[in-house]
């Protein structure tokens, strides 16, 4: 068997074991015993090494998840439920209209991370050493998996907080976050509120300044992902940038320009772990597009996903961003060529509109059940909104980088660069507004699992039939 097939099926088996351990724990022991027995029989008696190898991969995934879970829980020492004073380092912070949330790494005598919700009258910053007085609540079962995949073990709501020291975090990360804050401030000075907010979302994934009206318009139009720091967002943007640069430069130079844009994006957004993961998934999608061969791409996809899950097994089932990234990546690599073959269209079209249309359609068809099951709604007109907006995303991002860089030299220069950016942002906001008013949503109260299996089975059949040229 070819090496890429071994890599692909090994990763698939291992992730299947992680999946089983994550979603149906009472069956773990039975599945492990059955898999072990099957592996022994096929290895020793029937010499079917492939089946036995896959069974061992499933066992490895199951036990790896359980070991990770045990080690993670044993590393924590937190005084739950009692009024106490704790001390810790702020390692993440999110501003909200009337509050702020901070992830705090506790210091001796306690161990572990907690999430603190506090008022905004005194803003916390990355690297602050704080003292908080209050009670730490254990995680509620309904939200436990969401917090645990981020390594958070408890919550604290509106305690009394005092900042004792500042600047104690990682120096590089502090510098990157300061750059990000400076760029956001530059956008706000150079552009009107909604345009500045949209540009901050597109280039930095920063959405704290979004108005309620803009947030609702993006939700209704199906364009929210453009400002979310997920591989779904970054993949679509990468391929849009590649489509534009590919018209003027060679494939190799176009790929290098796109990779440089991704690195710049990661730096500007603060190089958070979730951003780096999303960027890696996006780059893998670009590599898959460049290779234009599914057999070369699927092994790369599986290696990437397996490596991320090895680092944090909870991502596979409990991280929506990872799921959107992974499914969109599969859609772009596998479903996009099938759609192009079905419609007999392999030309990019004027301003690459066909390329953007197939990319967006493939990504959205791949993630549709997940979006519908998670949010309860999916817009049938989102494809058209995304195709129209994506036409201006590459140049808007480029102008955003220029405005951000100019802001470190002169606010006047940033304002000048903001003039053309304002035109493209105005167009994007207009498209978002139109498709927010004229939308065709599908709404469900709950997503039947049988429908999900049927949906992806039909997609797999479609790919098998029409993507043969890429296999």
From TrEMBL:
Residues covered by the ComEC/Rec2-related protein domain: 202-461
InterPro entries: ComEC_N, Competence_DNA_uptake, DUF4131
Signal peptide annotation: none
Main localization category: membrane
Localization in the cell: Cell membrane
KW Coiled coil (keyword) present: no
Membrane topology field: Multi-pass membrane protein
GO cellular component, one term: plasma membrane
Domain of life, per lineage: Bacteria
Listed transmembrane segments: 6-22, 51-68, 226-249, 255-287, 317-335, 356-378, 384-409, 416-436, 442-463
Residue ranges of domain DUF4131 in the record: 27-142
UniProt keyword annotations, A-Z: Cell membrane, Membrane, Transmembrane, Transmembrane helix
Name of the protein this chain belongs to: Uncharacterized protein
Species for this entry: Candidatus Harrisonbacteria bacterium RIFCSPLOWO2_02_FULL_45_10c
